[in-house]
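Known limitations

Structure tokens in this collection are predictions and should be treated as such. Users comparing against experimental data should check residue numbering before alignment. To illustrate the layout, the record for Peptide ABC transporter substrate-binding protein is reproduced below. The input appears on top and the generated tokens appear beneath it.
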Amino acid sequence: MRTSTTTRSLVAAVAATALLAGCNAGAGTSGSAGDGSEEGSGGGGSEEGDGDAGQTGGSASGGSDETVRVGLVAEPASLDFTTTDGAAIPQLLLDNVYETLVTVDVETGEIVPALATDWEVSEDRLTYTFTLEEGVTFSDGSEFTAEDAAFSLERVSSDAWTISLAAQLDVVESVEAVDDTTLEVTLAQPSNSFLYALTTRVGAMFDTEGVDDLADEAIGTGPYTFESWDRGSMVTLERNPDYHGDAPYFATVEMRYFQDANALNNAMLTDAIDVVGTVQAPESLAEFEEGDFQIVEGTTNGEVVLSMNQQEGNPLADPALREAVRHAIDHQSLLDTCWAGRGELIGSMVPPTDPWYEDRTGDFPFDPARAEELIAEAGAEGTELRLRIPTLPYAVSCGTVVESMLEDVGLEVTIDELEFPAAWLETVFTNKDFDMSIVAHVEPRDMANVFGSPDYYTTYGTEEIQTLFEEADTGTEEEQVTKLQEAAALISEEAAADFLFLLPNLMVADPDITGLPTNAIKESFDLGDLARG
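Generated tokens:
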């Protein structure tokens, strides 16, 4: 395994999955851990998680031949989340086809056993010993053992994983399969984020013989197996007859993908689907409120970020101009206009479900006069800014509002809508050919991943912020909270970006569907929880 400093692990850019995930936030997407908190379990298999999540209904143990149809907007670009960015992939496959050693309990936010029945942490916080569940098999019939677990974690640090999210396991020094059911992981240094990272896609368990064609075939231990993919339309999952846990209620799941919010809503209104996994036109909820539907509204980890390219030579390299942008935006008005007032203003990269949350909405209050002063001080009157946004409903809706507000204070804004994901990823995420963009980052505890490296598309990652992130990861839990609060304050005060609002979790479903998550705090949409009551 690679041995490296926590700085490298934490400041490595989070995969563009975060960016892609904004369109899926209502369906339980969120979750590559950047700064998880951990409390030694001493073998009890319980780590202290953070964040609240309610849940309506519950899971049921098999017994139905029914199909449930879930409607979404963003379709995966591939089935391979080891080489392809996109939150739609773990949303579909994680916890459903692929499982992890540990997972997040959506009701308590705690890290709880999954394929590992328990674990012990050494006193120096460097060695984790996992005891694995016996009798687990992959969908190809092979047995899941500690060799597969070691293979899966070691593979994250190989050239096989190309998405930047893989850097979360850089802190791992070695992995050893002690016997068939015992896995030992040794870290190069203590890390508060390590165990939480294992609940995300980097902790997915693969069959040693099942990784030859991950883009088109998924072999896992989960409650469902991958059946088929009608590209541009639908992915079908089938109940795993050999699943080691309680069988899911629904025999078949059809994840149906729609081009826009209206098509998604119409599918629900005409009984073409049973669940709207993520409402993409909040103003349309009135269509469902008087009908025979249930509406779920909660929160997510999805910070909608107005990023500003700070690379040398770009207009927004000037901090005064970035501050002007922040003062020019009336966030409540923006939220009311582009997302029907659904969501929450937070002012930073930390959602209220994290223990280091502080309300930072007062850092840059709406003050167009001050914005004009800062623009004049920077000699930037009439500066042209390219706002390059993905073709995702929230980005398109909010983009026009941002454009209007910035032009009101004397800036010239040109909006380019880039096809998502391919064009946006290439132009903004990879080539950094933009001045501003709007995208939702829905991974939990992702502040260090998004703002910890100047090489990431957000172009921040100062030495001071990197030091804070390293101290947060290696220190005590109390130090973690303090340092991450300092980091959030620094990112906000230096106007590294503007934080438009926190996406709500909005879902619509048939009235008898149970198991829908009130709060979306994981990368996956856990289909095994769904049932009919």
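For this record: The domain at 300-504 is CATH 3.10.105.10 (Dipeptide-binding Protein; domain 3). The longest strand covers residues 294-308. Please report discrepancies through the issue tracker.
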